[in-house]
Every structure is written in structure tokens, then in C-alpha cells.
Design goal:
heterodimer, A: 452 residues, alpha+beta, seven-stranded mixed beta sheet, six-stranded mixed beta sheet, 44% helix, 20% strand, globular, B: 434 residues, five-stranded mixed beta sheet, 16 helices
Amino acid sequence: MSLRLYIILGLNLFCTTTHAVTVHEIQYKGKTKAYLVEDHTYPILSVAGKIEKSGCLSDPVGQEGKSYLMMQLLSLRFDKEKLSYRKLGVSSMNFNSGRDYFRFSFEVPLEKSKKAISTILQDLLNFKPDAVELRRSKYSFSSAYFNSESASPDNFLERKWIQLSYPHIPEYQNYSGTMDSIESFNPQDFDNYWKERLTQENVIFSIVGDMSPAQCSEFIAEMMTLLPEKSQQPLSSKFEILNQKDTIEPQIDGSVTLVHADRPQSHVFFGQKGLSKLHPDFYTLQIASSILGQGTFTSRLWIELREKKGSVYNVLTRLDPEFNYFFGFLSTSNDKVAQSIEDIRKVFQELKTNGITAKELEDAKKQLIGTYMVTLTNLSGIANAVIKATEEGNALRFVEGYAEKINQVTLQDVNKLVKSILDPEGLRFVVLGNPTSESSSSDPLPAPLMHS
Amino acid sequence: MKRILTLVCLFLASSAQADQPTSSYLKNGLQVVVLPNHRAPVVSISVWYKAGSADEDPLKSGAAHFLEHMMFQGTKTVGPGDFKRRLASLGGYTNAFTTYDYTYFLNIVAKANLKEILKLEADRMANLQIDPKKFALEKSVVLRERVDITEDSPDGAVAESVNSRFFINHPYRIPVIGWRHEIESLGPQDIKDFYKKWYAPNNAVVIFAGDVTPEEAISLTKEAFGSIKPRKVPARNRLKDPLSDFGTQKLSFAHPEFGASFAKIYRMDIVPQTLKYRYTFLLLSMIIKERLHTLLINVQDLASFVDVHFSVSHLDPFNFEIHGGAKAANQLTTIEALIDGALKDLSKNGVTPEELSYIKELFINNAYWTLSDLTDVSSGIGNDVVMGYSLEEILKWKEMIQNLSVADLNEAAEKVFNRPSHLTVLKQYGEKPL
């Protein structure tokens, strides 16, 4: 394709060369609508996409769980049509609704890429579930989700923790749906789901594979013409919470809530205030979390609770950049719950008081950057990493940008932040299991204790 | 001679284009395979030993897998906790796998950590320390793993039982993890013996995939592994099964956790172990899967899933397996008859040119995805290299697939499926295990 043709099509092409990975920015009608990483080794493409400011928080009141139910419907439909998508060369399709975003990714051969992706996009825009599909999806969603207490205790506890910690944010309470909201859906409720979301304005693509920037511009232009220009009303103006969420904080009070279940071991979820991904100290907190509980074999919580005390099977901490909390979870025998809770508060307090060492900082940086690189072993991994980097405006330098953000954190930064942000006494715990006391004279859990 | 040839290839490759896959050998016999891809600063490094559970001495089942566990328990200079900590501190991914025929250690790390991971791998190739206390602790972990995968897993228990009947004399009759009573009686010396016998540089392959040039990879491997002395490694003389047409046999299992499912298992010892037959049966397995999916799921609506496996990771002839789940228990007999009919039709009328061409396209497309993934390509190419194929022949996969004809597939299908020698395994719900 000649340069002249780009101008005729109204396309602009920019290329930013970086040391590690070259990412091309692809524009459509003057706006960046895709990023491309070239890999011409094999004639294949991984196409990832993201619709920002959507996801569960764009489910209307009374229709909570709509986005998650949509995932079930899509997985059922695409499974049913597997053989016909395979004929188009589609070797993988993934749809993922987050709390405030929607992501998808496809793997297609270059030769059939236009046909395959345009078919998928059109199928999405015209998607209408029939009554049988909806009934089956409701059933599998409900049984997987509302029974997750037994199937996935950590997810169950996280939802419980969110309910308890955000009483002031009604949108967070049932963001993933309730039995009633799921039951209430009719097939026509899904009519405009994709037309409202999958628009030229909302979507951004990331492509990795055997395509030149020129081919990619042409490809994106063709895909864009299939999509509505914009939705009637932007989701973020319809759902104010999507704009407010970066400043919302959880309310914690140091309580321990027990959800009683007769299980051979107890699961414990704990959390406190975290930071939004856009906060300047986000990566400083990421390093603190890594030292506290991110690294198996190396973190302070692992060494204290697993190696020294032998009281837990695993213990991990993570940041949630969507609802801005800092959390951890562990599983332990029922007689070690109280001790584990005490130990976690102690490890948090120790970090808050004395900070970290230079060696810990150096190791954490190495580990975080190393962990990030492991996500880049295939085309889809790279496509997804670029899409995630768009959230921080970092797509063009996603690899070095990440490394720089980690590397620029100093010892003083971490020690100042942990002093102000860590709240050992305030940590809210939620326990699922049947905790017992180690000795019959002490209470099974430290007060205050609420039963749920 | 082989060594000289590959070095010539390496030279040609590096002078023509630095990014071509290469294979070469260090002076101590360690094979180094490099599959460069510079799209992101990450590298997969795997170390493969040509020894697996089928190479164990009599009464020592489980030694190969036990050794794989002990490889994480420290060396003469690095303590057990430190070894795991050093691996974890790199932030990479580390895992290890033991099969009947080989054992490998897979690491994925940022390019910056390449040197460090190679140092750790070389250290455990040469200086493994088997501390009796650690050995005793690890034995409970291994026995626990055995419980998880067989004693507490009805499917695993059936697989173990089926293999022990299917192979009469060949070591594939013994589970990779080992028999419980033999694991219990293993001592530290047994693990040391297996290590000394097989874990030598001249019996190993290091595979690099990712952001590294052949020159860098070879020079780093030389630096880390170059001083390890080669040792004489014994020939892999294994017991063989008699070639037998044992007729069709049926085994039934019942368990409270079973839904109704079936498996048909065919012996592959009638077919030569060559790359051509390997690709032929891979294509056949995809065609059979496609046909049975259409028949049993789309048309008859009897099965909940259909899967067809042909193993390419066994040194000696293994199985061709068809698995499926029935929607209702009383339909197993109907399903079995339909599968028999489909296979009879295949061995009598063969495949059509249209389906062969579609399946080739599907195969090639799938292969591109495997080859472009640093984990999958290391595992795939590593498997083929330790099976004894040269990198050159492995890289001609596409040409070999394209050259396969309808007649090639029909001849192979006739050989295997038109023979009264297979095993049917039925699993059904039952209140008590049977």
C-alpha cells in the first residue's frame, strides 16, 4: 500500500522505536485505535481488544451480573459454533469482563484474519441469546458463582470482603449479580449490549504477529467500519461510578468476620486501603506488596507463617487496582486461624515501623520485572500486555515503561509510603471455615468477631 | 560425524542469518539447541536428560521422578532453601517434568537473568547433594503426590491399572511415579545411583527459545556447563513386549465419581517408529476426532465430549487412544458400536482428499501457534530432540505434512484399526468402586 493511499483513507501512521520492543501506533480518523508489534516468524495474528469504562460497573441497577452472564452466553454460543469458527482458522477466543472493563482476544491465521475477525465482530454486534441458551447460562453461572463458597473459597471471600468494606458504595455491593438479578433476565435484555459497548469510540485493539504497520492500518480501518461510531449515551455518563472509582477507598475497622463452614481447613482473606493504578505511588506499593507477600519462598509473610511457624500452606498478597484495595489470602488448618491473623498483623506492623532493606528492594525489583517478562512468551501475552499498558498511557513503551516505573522507586519512597499507608490494626479479615482454638482456654478468633 | 555436521550447519546458519534455529555440541557432549525469537526480552531455557522412569532398575520404580524432586533440594554449595529462593527471586517460571522416557527442567526468565539460571542448572547437573533428612521429607511429598494422582483419583487409578495390563513386559507397564511399595523402599543411594548413571552432559540437551542469539547462548552454556566432565552412559536396553494380536478385550470400572465414559486403546507396535508415521497418525487422530465429533455430538447428540490422542512423546511404541463421555450411561453400548462402525469405515474406505487438505491446514495453523510460544516450542522441539530426531529433520515438519497423501493415511489406518487387537475401557457410575 502506498503512502498516498493512507492519505486517501484518512489514516495516519506513527512508529515509535524502543530499545526492547517496537510498538507501532495505528490511527483511525485521527485517533489511536490500535497498537502493533510485528513478528513475522509465522503467518499468524493475535488480536486483543479492550473496551474501557464498561464491565460490571456498567450493568444497570437491578441488572447486576449482566456482564458476567454475557460471558457465559458467549462461551456457550462459541462452543456450539466451534466447528464453524475452526473452519475460519480461529484457534482461540477469549472474552473477559472485569469490574470496569471488557477485554477480548482471538488467535487467527493471517490469511483468513479479515474474514475471521469481521465474522466475530458481527456475531457479537448481532448477538441475541435464545431462551434455551439463557436458561442454560443462568444455570451454569449460578452454580459456578453462587456456589463458589465451596468451589472457589478465595473468590467467595473476596466478594464478602468487598460487601463489608464498601457499605458506602451501593454499586460495589452486588456488582457481580445476585440470584434475583440473574433470574430476572430475559433474552431481549441483551439486545443492545454490544451496540452500546463495541463502538469505534470505545474500543482499542492490540495486534501482534505477521503484519506490517501499513497492512495493520488497512485491517483496523476495515474492522472499524463494521462498528457503530458511538453509543447513544456514553457508558461513563450513564454510570457515574466509572468516573469516580479512582478516588474510592474501603472502610476497614480491624474486624474479623467468620463465615462458618464445615471444612477440613480454613480460608482467610484480609485487606486494607490500596491505590489506584493511576496514583503516583502505585508501583511503590506494588514493591511493598511484593516484599510482604507476593513471592513464594521469599516474602516476609511466607517466611514468618510458612517457614518459621509452619502454620499455613500458602500466603499471598496482591493489589486490586480496580477497587483500590490491598489484600491477601491464605489457607490454614482450623486450629491455626487465630495465630495466623495475629502473625499477619505483626508482619504488617514490623514493615510499617522499620521499613525495608536495600537488598529487599533490589530483589523485589528483580522479581517483579522478571515476573512481568514471563507474561510475554507468546503473541497473545504480548497483545494483552500492550492492552493493559494503554491504561497508563504506556503502550508504546510497555516493556521499558514497566521496568522504569519499578526501577525508579527508592528505598525512601517505600519506607515513607508503608509508614503512612499500612494499617495493621485496621486490617479487615474474613474467614471461611471452622476455626477452633489451639488451646481450649482462648477464644477461637481475636475480637471483634462477627458471625455471618 | 554428527557433531561436525551440526557445527557446519551452525556456521552456515550464523553466516547467512543470525536468527536461524541451530543445534551444536559442547566438547563434553552437551547438545545446545537455540531457537531465537527477539520480539520480547524473555527466554525459555530447558535442560533435558535422556532418562525417565522406563530406564529405572528393577524394584526401583519412582527413582526418576524422585530425583526430579531432589533436583530442587540443593547442591554442594547451595543449600536446599536457598536453591528454591534463588530460583524464585528471578521472578521467572520454573517447573520440572518426568516422563517414561525423559526428564526436563523448564525455566522462563527475563533475558537479564539468563546467566544466573544457567549457573543454577549447571550446578545441579554436576553437584547435586542428597541430604538424608531432606530425602526423608521429600519422600512424604512424593507419596502424597501419588495419593493425589492415583490413590485419591479414580481416573488416575484406572489409567494405572489399564497400562499395567496393556503392556505385558515393557516398562511402560509401571507408572512413572512408581509403585507405592517401591517408592517406600527407595533410599538416598538409589537416587544417587540414578543421578550418576544418567545425569551427564553427554546425555543432556539445553534448549533456548527466545531473545538470545546462537552465539550468546552457546558461549553462556560453555561458561556454565563447559567444565562438567562427560561420563559413560549405558545403552537404554529395555524389555520388549511380544508382538501380539491379543484380540479385543474389555475392562469395566465403576466408581461413585464416574460419569459414563469410554476409551478405545490401540497398540502402535505394528507401525515403524519414523517421523513420517508420526505425522500420519497425528493427522489421522485429528480426522477421527473431527468425524466422531460430528457423528456423536452434532448428529446423534449422544456424547458430551470426544478426544483422540496419539502420543509423540514415547521412545517405544505407545498407544492410539479414543476417549469420550456419554450423555447417558445406557448409551455407552450404542456409542461403542458407532465408533467401531466409524473406524471400520475409515479402514475400509479411507479418508477423503477434502478432509485431508482441511486437516493439514488445521495442523499447520496449530503448529504455528505452538512454534510461536516460547514454552510450547521448547517442550515440542525438546521432546523431538530427545526422541533422537535431528533439528534439521524436525524443522522440515511442514514439508513432511504437505507431502502426506491420502494413500499414506489409508495404509496406516488399515494397519492399526483393521486389527483385532485393542482394548475397550468403560467407566460408569457405581455406588462402590469396582
